[in-house]
Amino acid sequence: MDDDRRRRTPRTDAVLADPSVAAAAARLGRGRVKEAVVACLEACRAGEVAPEDVVAHVLAMLPTTAASMRRVVNATGVVVHTNLGRAPLSQAAVDAVAVAAGATDVELDLPTGRRGRRGAAALAALAARVPDAGGVHVVNNGAAALVLAACALASGGRRIVIARGELVEIGDGFRIPELLQSVGAELREVGTTNRVHPADYADAIDDRTAFVLKVHPSNFRVEGFTSSVAVRPLAELCRERGVPLVVDIGSGLLAPHRRLPDEPDATTVLRAGADLVTASGDKLLGGPQAGLLLGDASLVERLRRHPIARALRVDKLTLAALEATLVGPAPPVAAALATRPEELLDRARRLALAIGPDLATAVHSDGRVGGGGAPGVPLPSAAVALPASLAEPLRLGALPVVGHVSDGRLLLDLLAVPADLDDELADAVRRVAGVARPGHTA
Ligand SMILES: *Cc1c(COP(=O)(O)O)cnc(C)c1O
C-alpha cells in the first residue's frame, strides 16, 4: 500500500461535509450517501480515483431519487409492457400524484369540514366517461375487481359459470380460475377449449348460479374451429334466468377504439346487456394500476359495501392519477395508439441521421399493444436498427434504453417512445457507441 496515497485520501467526514454531498444526503438519506463515500474512498486508496475527484465520483454514483427504480426508455414497440410498468402516466397524472402525496382532501369535504366520500371526484370522472354505467367503483387492480365480485356474489357454495376457453392465465403463473376459487367460489365450466354455445350456458345455469362470467382472452388468440357466445345473446339468456352477467374486458377501453376494432370496451359491453364490467386501469386506459368496476348501480353498491372491499381499497395516489387520466390530456398510451406510422418513420430517419448513418438505419417495424390487449394485432410502426451488440450497453447506460433484437439487429421501436425523448435517445445511443455528436469533436 502506498503510504502517500493513503495520507492524501480524504476522511469520510470531510467528504460528507462537502456541501454538494451534504445536499445529496438530505435528498437521498445519509446511509446511502455514506455507503457511496466509503466505496469511493476505498477506490481512492487503491489508486483508482484521484483524491481531488472523490466528490465528483460520489455524486456520479448516487441515484437521482431515494427509490431504486429507474426511468427507462421503452423502445420495445410494445405499448403496454408489463415488465416496464405497463402504462406510463401522463404528466397531468404525475402532477396530480405529487399534490396528493401530501395531506390532501381525499376523504374530507372542505366546504362543510365533514367526512366526504373517498375519491368522489375520480369516481365521478369515471362515471362521466361511461354514462351507461349506473354505478362505478375502483379497487387495486383487475384481479381485485374479480375477487370482489366473487366474494360478494359467489360465496357459500354458489357457482360461477364460465367457458373453458376463457380460463385464462393472466401472467407470472396467476390464473383467473384459481383466483376465483381461492376466495371460495366454485366454478361451473362449460363448453370446450375451442367452442362454447348458448345451450351450454343454458344447461349450466341453475339455482346455485351466482353469476355468469365472460373473460376476454386478452393475451392469446384461438384460431380455426372456434366459437364463443357474444355478450348480447349471453346477456339475454342471463336476464331470462335471473342471474347477473359479469364481463371481464381486461384492457380498460371505455369506448370503442378505431385502431383496435376487436378489443371490447366498457360502453359497448354494458349496452349489450352486461350487468357488471371489470377492467384494469393501467392497460389501454393509460392510467395507474387499478381495477375498474362499472355497471348496475345496486350491484356495484353491494360490492362496495362488502367487507373485503376495504382490503382492496385504492391509495389516494391512485385516485389522483386516475382522475387526471380520465379528465386530463390524452395519456401516453392513447398518444402512442394515435401516432401515424409515417410520423414514426420520419422520426426514425431523423434519429438515424443524428446517431450516424454508418451505425443506424430507419426501418419499418411492427409494434404491439402488449399484455394490455389486442393479441396478435400488429401496429405498423418504425424503428432505428442498430448492431445487436449495443443491446446490453444501452440497457445498462445512464438512461437505460430497452429495445428488442430481431434478425441479428437491435431495433429501437418508436411506437411507445414519446417524441420529446428523441434527443435523449440519440444521445444515449451515441454515448454507448462512442460516437461524437455530429458537428462536435469528441
Ligand atoms: C390483465 C387482465 C386481468 C388482470 O388485471 P390486473 O390489473 O393485472 O390485475 C384480468 N383479466 C383480463 C382479461 C386481463 O386482461
TrEMBL record:
<dbReference type="InterPro" id="IPR025862">
    <property type="entry name" value="SelA_trans_N_dom"/>
</dbReference>
<keyword id="KW-0663">Pyridoxal phosphate</keyword>
<protein>
    <recommendedName>
        <fullName>L-seryl-tRNA(Sec) selenium transferase</fullName>
        <ecNumber>2.9.1.1</ecNumber>
    </recommendedName>
</protein>
<dbReference type="InterPro" id="IPR018319">
    <property type="entry name" value="SelA-like"/>
</dbReference>
<dbReference type="InterPro" id="IPR004534">
    <property type="entry name" value="SelA_trans"/>
</dbReference>
<dbReference type="Pfam" id="PF03841">
    <property type="entry name" value="SelA"/>
</dbReference>
<comment type="pathway">
    <text>Aminoacyl-tRNA biosynthesis; selenocysteinyl-tRNA(Sec) biosynthesis; selenocysteinyl-tRNA(Sec) from L-seryl-tRNA(Sec) (bacterial route): step 1/1.</text>
</comment>
<comment type="similarity">
    <text>Belongs to the SelA family.</text>
</comment>
<keyword id="KW-0808">Transferase</keyword>
<keyword id="KW-0711">Selenium</keyword>
<dbReference type="Pfam" id="PF12390">
    <property type="entry name" value="Se-cys_synth_N"/>
</dbReference>
<keyword id="KW-0963">Cytoplasm</keyword>
<dbReference type="InterPro" id="IPR015424">
    <property type="entry name" value="PyrdxlP-dep_Trfase"/>
</dbReference>
<feature type="domain" description="L-seryl-tRNA selenium transferase N-terminal">
    <location>
        <begin position="6"/>
        <end position="45"/>
    </location>
</feature>
<dbReference type="InterPro" id="IPR015421">
    <property type="entry name" value="PyrdxlP-dep_Trfase_major"/>
</dbReference>
<keyword id="KW-0648">Protein biosynthesis</keyword>
<dbReference type="GO" id="GO:0016740">
    <property type="term" value="F:transferase activity"/>
</dbReference>
<feature type="modified residue" description="N6-(pyridoxal phosphate)lysine">
    <location>
        <position position="283"/>
    </location>
</feature>
<comment type="function">
    <text>Converts seryl-tRNA(Sec) to selenocysteinyl-tRNA(Sec) required for selenoprotein biosynthesis.</text>
</comment>
